[in-house]
Amino acid sequence: MGEVEPGPAGPLEPPEPPEAPASRRPGGIRVLKRTMKRNGSRHCLNRRSRFGSRERDWLREDVKRGCVYLYGADTATATAASTSATASSSDLHLVLCTVDTPASEICAGEGRERLYLQLHGDLVRRLEPTERPLQIVYDYLSRLGFDDPVRIQEEAANPDLGCMLRFYGEKPCQMDHLDRILLSGIYNVRKGKTQLHKWAERLVVLCGTCLIVSSVKDCQTGKMHILPLVGGKVEEVKRRQYCLAFSSAGAQAQTYHVSFETLAEYQRWQRQSSKVVSQRISTVDLSCHSLEEVPEHLFYSQDITYLNLRHNFMQLERPGGLDTFYKFSQLKGLNLSHNKLGSFPVLLCEISTLTELNLSCNGFHDLPSQIGNLLNLQTLCLDGNFLTTLPEELGNLQQLSSLGISFNNFSQIPKVYEKLTMLDKVVMAGNQLEVLNLEVLNCMSHVKHVDLRMNHLKTMVIENLEGNKYITHMDLRDNQLTDLDLSSLCSLEQLHCERNQLRELTLSGFSLRTLYANSNRLTAVNVYPVPSLLTSLELSRNLLECVPDWACEAKKIEILDVSYNLLTEIPMRILSSLSLRKLMVGHNHVQNLPALVEHIPLEVLDIQHNLLTRLPDTLFSKALNKLNKLEQLEELNLSGNKLKTIPTTIANCKRLHTLVAHSNHISIFPEILQLPQIQFVDLSCNDLTEILIPESLPATLQDLDLTGNTNLVLEHKTLDTFSHITTLKIDQKPLPTTDSTVTSTFWSHGLAEMAGQRNKLCISALAVDNFAEGVGAVYGMFDGDRNEELPRLLQCTMADVLLEEVQQSTNDTVFMAHTFLVSHRKLGMAGQKLGSSALLCYIRPDTADPTSSFSLTVANVGTCQAVLCRSGKPLPLSKVFSLEQDPEEAQRVKDQKAIITEDNKVNGVTCCTRLLGCTYLYPWILPKPHISSTPLTIQDELLILGNKALWEHLSYTEAVNAVCHVQDPLAAAKKLCTLAQSYGCQDNVGAMVVYLNVGEEGCTCEMNGLTLPGPVGFASTAAIKDPPKPTTPSSSSGIASEFSSEMSTSEVSSEVGSTASDEHNTVGLDAALLSRPERRCSLHPTPTSGVFQRQPSCATFSSNQSDNGLDSDDDQPVEGVMTNGSKVEVEVDIHCCRGRQLENSPTLRENFPIPCLEERARGLVFGIRRQNSVNSGILLPVSKDKTELQKSPSTSCLYGKKLSNGSIVPLEDSLNLIEVATEAPRKKTGYFAAPAQLEPEDQFVVPRDLEEEVKEQMKHHQESRPEPDSSEEGRTELAEEFDTAL
């Protein structure tokens, strides 16, 4: 469908000149009414449904002008009665306006009463008359991450934006299904059990738990008879066919007889009403329905006790607004969270029956004093507002047992808590407290639980030494405390203080049961007296040099985690504990384990990544009481040590089911295959040579990992014995490969993905080794966490988007940011509820740093990370956007009043603060990426890309050390995934390893000693004495491109890579006459003295949808291109000239050698100047007349070729037809012999307005040529010039 011409005068007029935009219409807006073709799968517009050139010119004059797409009603939810309006409601209006145009003017121009705004395909709210739609769009795009006003204007005019933000001229959904009407119709009705009353036709409605009968036929506005059905009866009337008797409960029960016409109606009413009668609690859930008022029928349902109106736009002064809620006489629970009320609805305080009230996330700054009238209130939730104080009248609510004021702006604990004696919890997470005043808590004897996580606590104040005997649980996570002394809390049972900056911690041990102090800087933990009730102690990721003495004396401790510290030994008293079940001592500096004497009930022992060289021989032997010392041991992790053997006494651990001992020096297979319950064995990356196996293996063995044992040889008999194992991992024999000394790539990659224990793989990877004409590379990793759709979409589209953005900007920060933001938009409806982490690495020639050949640009959102190995050391290039690891992002989310749950997730959904997708969590979750660029040097060895699961179980240093000596990148990637799984990773894990070779050793030039192939195979060119005379020059080493003069250039340009190839031999070259020049790589470009440029003569652009259902965004007019229907003919100027003017160039003379006269005499000397700005490694100087000619529109080059799926394919090296043309034949044959009569479609076209300019340039070019030297004429023929139009 092409562009639609503007209609007649009126609301369909095209824009007038800008000097009088509002002279004819009051608002100065332009409305273009089009019948748009919808994309059924994405509900987005087809790309061909755009406004014309005049509208586009009007927009370009001012960035404050734009386009608003105004949709009709969405017929997907319309009833059958409204199907006749389907055609008209699907029309779309394009409204040209400015950022200052209010909604009222657009409504006046459209003949609408009001406008509606829908965000992310979810909620729909009514716009106020003073709101400005275009400014709303601009603000939305700005908050997403767009900075350039021009780009914001372009994105605002993109119809794909409708999946995130859409305007309607009428409300897009019907409200019939919101008023709890289950069934309705006009039937014969008789009141009462006797036959005194007559039958009459009435409107009968089954609504909620009530039967509503109108007093007048087909009328809902008159008197309505309401019959509560809860606890009543629904019986069949036998004397009348298809008749039911509805009776209410109670002593004064009423009965209505309803007669139906068909059996189907009778059965449907009987089935539905029977369910209603059996109900006991009436709950109405109208959340997320874009309501501004309550449906009228709800007020007739007197039995409603709980009403959920979360995520709506409820208003106050409306017929069904909040001011009318007092009509619900039995209402006990009301949820009005996320309604953006702005102010507390005072009339709610008159509903005296309320026991539960949720008003979270409504933008309240204060509470009215009338809230003290809700004497029956037991639960009050005010999270996510802007409250700083609470009224004293709140103390009247003596039945209040739960008060939530998290994520507000309180700077201290409100004193009203002292009056609320029924409260046992102070829940104030995410506020602005800076001082922990224990004196205030001492005045609240009824408070037992204190939640102050995610505040700004820095210091603690104790005014007196009086102890607090009431507080039992305290949560101080994610604050800024450096020292914490809670020894006055003598009844404290549980303390959470993770992710602070604690150096010292002091507690009372009288009642202490659990202590969580991970991720601090602790050097000392003092607990007095010894905690006799302590069961769990977690002190990982601190600076402890020894296990606290009091922990060794705790009699009931079951779990001890001191991993990631500085421990050098494990106390004997810990290993002798008769209560310890789980001991985690990994990632320390332990060198020896103490010898056990007695039997202990230890079930899990984790001592991975220490300095152990041997285990005590008596570790698994029997104790004095004839019991095995570790008889109950179930899991043993010995990975990352220096063990050579595992004691044979391990066979005494009859309950052992998991043994992980990878990355050691074990040479003898341990005796574990006779254990009756063994399930998982990991002995990878050791020095095993053979395995002695019993005659039969235990049936429980499921996973055996033997990879990384280079000297291990398994016989066929052994493999047959292992055949029943579910998962057997062994090294595959490498396939024979032929090493070629001719080519050397700058990078190569390997990818490994493992699903773990999940039944689907939600990871996708992107790897393009030859990106943008083969001089760059793109690698990416996408992790959808629980969804696999978004990673697949990003894998298919993100490279194309990057190529488009690279052609629009050379700034790496700009094109990388736009790549992520555009990909976020292109996710469409799939990105509304789903999200994905994304990591993109782009390697390209570095034009900014002359000392570097390539630069690496990395961008990411979410938890996928990239690490560069430089000189054997890890260099992180990405940023983790999570609440736990990024305090700035956590503060941003808190400031925007998101609810962060106790498991550190935004609204309980995700721990990430930036993702692609999840648009319904805007503005908390954004797609703007973190971007970093670094020039690649010879010290850069490899690049590692991994998802969250990989980096949770591997440190940067460990990952680099594990693969830095592995030759194969695929084997390196598999090794990383295997290591992560060995460390307990059960989730999806993905790793990509990219080996880099961008130094001098990656050079393929002959000047560096590499031998290049000759004309036949790998023979030298000197070996061929009498080759046949050529008809066309060949392209063996990039010298010339094979081209058929009988093929039109339109055919050549329509097939990528059809005009250049490095696979043909050079038999056709006359080696005796032509000397082959040195071959150069991109590190050492060939010095040239001329320029030859070629552009495609014809291309076909299509705006069809891509295969993945996402629309492309690149139909802007190209300068120098004339459109004709669906085909685009590109004006071509192919001009070949002798570049002798360059001989006088000082730059060229200084940097490049000048060809000798003999070389010039044999033929033309050409150089290649890359057309694509992405691939411009070195730009050679160009003669003046040539430069001026390139400025004309007729010589405008296209950066890529548009395919039918909307993607952009880079121009191949084939467009650079000749790199070195010194081997050009002297005879007029082959490619250089242009036909005498040009083909009509091959003639180059010059627009009329440029004809004079082109003629002057051609004339100047002819006059500026120097006369040939007479001495040269005697030695050889005059070099010929060709002006060939392709």
Automatic annotation (TrEMBL):
Membrane topology field: Peripheral membrane protein
Catalytic activity: O-phospho-L-seryl-[protein] + H2O = L-seryl-[protein] + phosphate; O-phospho-L-threonyl-[protein] + H2O = L-threonyl-[protein] + phosphate
Enzyme class of the recorded protein, top EC level: hydrolase
GO molecular function, one term: metal ion binding
SUPFAM superfamilies hit by this protein: L domain-like (SSF52058), PH domain-like (SSF50729), PP2C-like (SSF81606)
Parts of the chain that traverse the membrane: none
Biased composition (Basic and acidic residues): 1255-1278
Residues of the PPM-type phosphatase domain: 748-996
First-listed, main subcellular location of the protein, grouped into a coarse class: cytoplasm
Signal peptide: none
Annotated segments matching region Disordered: 1-27, 1021-1065, 1084-1116, 1250-1286
Function, as annotated: Protein phosphatase involved in regulation of Akt and PKC signaling. Mediates dephosphorylation in the C-terminal domain hydrophobic motif of members of the AGC Ser/Thr protein kinase family; specifically acts on 'Ser-473' of AKT1, 'Ser-660' of PRKCB isoform beta-II and 'Ser-657' of PRKCA. Akt regulates the balance between cell survival and apoptosis through a cascade that primarily alters the function of transcription factors that regulate pro- and antiapoptotic genes. Dephosphorylation of 'Ser-473' of Akt triggers apoptosis and decreases cell proliferation.
PANTHER family linked: PH DOMAIN AND LEUCINE RICH REPEAT PROTEIN PHOSPHATASE 1 (PTHR48051:SF43), PTHR48051
Protein's name in the database: PH domain leucine-rich repeat-containing protein phosphatase 2
